[in-house]
Design goal:
By secondary structure, the protein is of the alpha/beta class. It is about 40% helix and about 20% strand. The chain has 24 helices and 29 strands. It has a seven-stranded mixed sheet with strand order 9-8-11-10-12-13-14, sandwiched between helices. Strands 24, 25, 26, 27, 28 and 29 form a six-stranded antiparallel sheet that branches. The chain starts with a helix and ends with a strand. The structure holds acetyl coenzyme *A (ACO). Acetyl coenzyme *A binds next to helix 2, helix 3 and helix 5.
Length: about 700
């Protein structure tokens, strides 16, 4: 990887003397970026390119070659890989298009297989290349090295990378490396996170992601990373939802799972390209915000109010500053100013007042993050204000607290903000953007801590029993377990289920009802009917012998009417659990991340509002807690309108056990639902009232 991404020598295979060709542009870029290592153009028809001696093949080059940049048409690439392998090249940057992106997976696999057989890594194919300021290396056909800075970007879109490259100058946001990752035939995002985390010139990692190939490793490497990572994910369609067999499957859209998986990996998400730049800037220059207290200092009431609104929106709501801080600040404002928070220095504020209040605010132990707002006035010089802010911050010597600035003004303000960014203080034109950035620093502090918690694993489970139940169903060529079997599997993993037995005759139904005790629930058992209520196959609160007789036959008739050829195995007679708050737990085997658990409140919350959340299994207690707290309906679990709080401790354990179960049985379970789970008051536990497991296809 090092040889390929930071080469000491490069060959350009398909280097061309013809202007306008990619093989020519790469040569020009290498020279213009003042690349210091030897450059070996390879082209059988040419003697010299841009004054450099040209070789017919890499095998003719006397010196060592770290990286080969390939710019010949796809049909020639395979032979070139062989030659590079024989030459001992370390890695291939394959700019050439025409592989899996146009359906030729076989050719792509062939070049990776060959490359690996020689110990070479492959970046691409279908890439723009790599730009690196710290290596003076523009091994790409992007127009120039990016505006210099300490963030590094990995982009799955080549065109977007080129656009971003140019925008780094107009936005004044600096990057050390821009890396185009293309089809990810070999090197993928997980590799890049690992590598950039070790790169001494990268302070923060930015990703533009269309889809991940090795999601689980991205999560693992994200958790291990010491540097902040920000991802912009495009493509938010709910793939596969229509075909999903379980409830959970139909609610699991790609974007929701990606969102949760990124958070689990400690990766901050960006909402759009602007936000990717803005968040990259703040995370590349400032430490995380640890704590809840943001202090805003402003010279204008209007921007102060706008910032207050945004603070709430972006998860850093303002509180009044403590009395002793207010008292100190009051010395630096007129009597009509305000020291509460936002601290309003009024339009009279000049560089001195900014200096002194920033100094007091930044040093105060209550303050966890400082936002400085300034509206350009005729009496003040934005650059002087910027310099006074920087000076005050520097004098405090504090490096573990963030500061963010927003200047609202014209060209003079723009210039001052550039100066601030060049001097390590992120500055934005809008107060909302500044507060979004502070929100990102707080979110980063939180998800970094949360992502490092160990997942809950359980050793009191009976996997053998679960596998036996599954094997029996497989032998009978079934790809779904019955409700009773599903509950037995849940029970083997320590989940509290409602007891149920199956009746295959009216008489058996009666004797089971008497054994379990009224009231009971009766439900159809058929591998062909997954949505039992829709089929008229569920009767609750059955209270008498007469009703058992009546409903037994009615349920079977309803099922037959619903699906003529449905195989009917009988009717479940189940204890009627007392009413509780209905929640739903479920799982899907996501193609990118593997087993993923869904949680939400039942009924309309899940059916209509789709108020659900996901986590890749297994996960920690802290993450199970986050799941309970982040759904819109969360307050219901805390007890509303005089109701007692629900048993969140038991629910937390149940969510963790469920996650452990679906990850422990990932080869077997494709989708599952526990719906409803009835949660009782604090201390009274819960019951899984219905269960469904769909098996993986064999
Ligand atoms: N060894 C060395 N040189 C060779 C060999 C070989 N085996 N075979 C051919 N060449 C030379 C050619 O003679 C030519 O040199 P010349 O100009 O002196 O004649 C040079 O290699 C290039 O070959 P061409 O056939 O002229 O190919 P061209 O330059 O038109 O296209 C390219 C090659 C750029 C790789 C093209 O096939 C391609 O894939 N283009 C798309 C690349 C791309 O966009 N990638 C990023 C995707 S992301 C985004 O969309 C921005």
């Amino acid at each position: 990887m090092n040889g390929m991404l930071q080469p000491k020598s490069v060959a350009v295979i398909g280097a061309s003397a013809t202007e306008g060709k990619i093989g020519h542009t790469v040569m020009v870029n290498l020279q213009e970026s003042k690349y210091e290592g030897p450059i070996y153009p390879i082209n059988p028809k040419t003697e010299r390119i841009l004054g450099i001696k040209c070789y017919k093949s890499v095998l003719d080059v006397e010196g060592l070659i770290d990286a080969a940049i390939i710019t010949v048409p796809a049909k020639f690439v395979s032979n070139i890989v062989d030659e590079c392998g024989k030459k001992g090249v370390k890695g291939l940057l394959v700019i050439t298009s025409g592989f899996s992106e146009v359906g030729d997976e076989a050719l792509e696999e062939e070049i990776v297989k060959k490359a690996h057989s020689y110990g070479m890594r492959v970046l691409g194919p279908n890439i723009v290349g790599i730009c690196s300021n710290s290596d003076n290396f523009n091994g790409s056909f992007a127009p120039f090295l990016p505006y210099d800075g300490s963030a590094s970007l990995v982009s799955q879109s080549g065109a977007l990378l080129i656009g971003i490259d140019a925008q780094t100058y107009t936005r004044g946001i600096g990057f050390d490396k821009l890396i185009s990752i293309g089809n990810m035939s070999d090197v993928n995002f997980a590799d890049m996170i690992e590598w950039l985390d070790q790169d001494q010139n990268t302070s923060c990692i930015s990703l533009y992601v269309e889809g991940l190939k090795d999601g689980k490793r991205v999560i693992d490497n994200g958790i291990k990373a010491k540097k902040p990572i920000i991802a912009l994910k495009s493509g938010v369609s709910a793939h596969g939802a229509a075909a999903a067999a379980s409830h959970t499957g139909s609610l699991a859209g790609t974007s929701k799972i990606y969102k949760s998986a990124f958070a689990q990996a400690g990766i901050i998400q960006a909402s759009d390209l602007d936000n990717l730049f803005d968040r990259t800037l703040v995370l590349s220059l400032q430490p995380p915000m640890i704590g809840d207290n943001v202090l805003i200092i402003t010279n204008g009431g209007g921007v102060g109010v706008l910032a207050t609104d945004s603070a709430e929106k972006f998860g850093v709501p303002l509180k009044f500053a403590p009395e002793n801080l207010q008292a100190e600040l009051k010395n630096y404002m007129p009597s009509f100013g305000s020291a509460k928070n936002p601290v309003d220095l009024t339009g009279m504020a000049g560089a001195d007042w900014y200096h002194d209040t920033v100094s007091i605010g930044f040093k105060h132990e209550w303050v966890n993050g400082l936002v400085i707002l300034y509206c350009e006035t005729a009496m003040t010089d934005p650059l002087a204000i910027a310099k006074s802010i920087k000076k005050a911050v520097e004098e405090t010597g504090i490096e573990d607290k963030p500061i963010i600035v927003s200047f609202v003004g014209g060209e003079r303000s723009e210039k001052a903000m550039r100066w601030l960014v060049e001097n390590g203080i992120p500055a934005y034109g809008g107060p909302d953007v500044a507060l979004n950035a502070m929100g990102a620093l707080k979110e980063y502090a939180h998800i970094r801590e949360s992502s490092k918690q160990k997942p809950e694993l359980f050793d009191d489970v009976n996997k053998e029993k679960a596998i036996k139940i599954i094997q029996k169903a497989r032998k009978e060529n079934r790809d779904a377990l019955t409700e009773i079997e599903s509950k037995q599997v849940f029970s083997a993993y320590g989940l509290d289920i409602t007891h149920a037995k199956i009746a295959t005759s009216e008489e058996k139904a009666l004797s089971l009802a008497e054994e379990i005790g009224f009231p009971i629930v009766m439900k159809i058992v058929s591998p062909d009917i997954l949505h039992k209520s829709d089929a008229g196959g569920v009767k609750v609160d059955v209270n008498s012998v007469d009703d058992v007789k009546k409903f037994y036959n009615e349920i079977i008739e309803n099922a037959k009417a619903y699906k003529k050829d449905a195989e009917i195995l009988g009717v479940v007679i189940q204890e009627m659990a007392p009413w509780g708050t209905e929640v739903i737990l479920g799982s899907v085997n996501d193609p990118t991340f593997g087993p993923t658990v869904m949680f939400g409140l039942g009924g309309i919350f899940v059916e209509v509002l789709k108020d659900v959340t996901f986590r890749v299994a297994p996960f920690s207690k802290m993450q199970a807690n986050e799941m309970m707290n982040e759904i819109e309906a969360a307050p219901i679990l805390n007890g509303v309108r005089g109701e007692a709080p629900k048993d969140k401790k038991k629910l937390n354990e149940t969510i963790c056990r469920y996650a452990f179960m679906v990850s422990d049985l990932k080869e077997e379970i494709s989708e599952s639902d526990a719906n409803p789970v009835l949660v009782y008051d604090k201390g009274d536990g819960l019951k899984v009232a219905d269960a469904r497991i769909i098996l993986t296809k064999r």
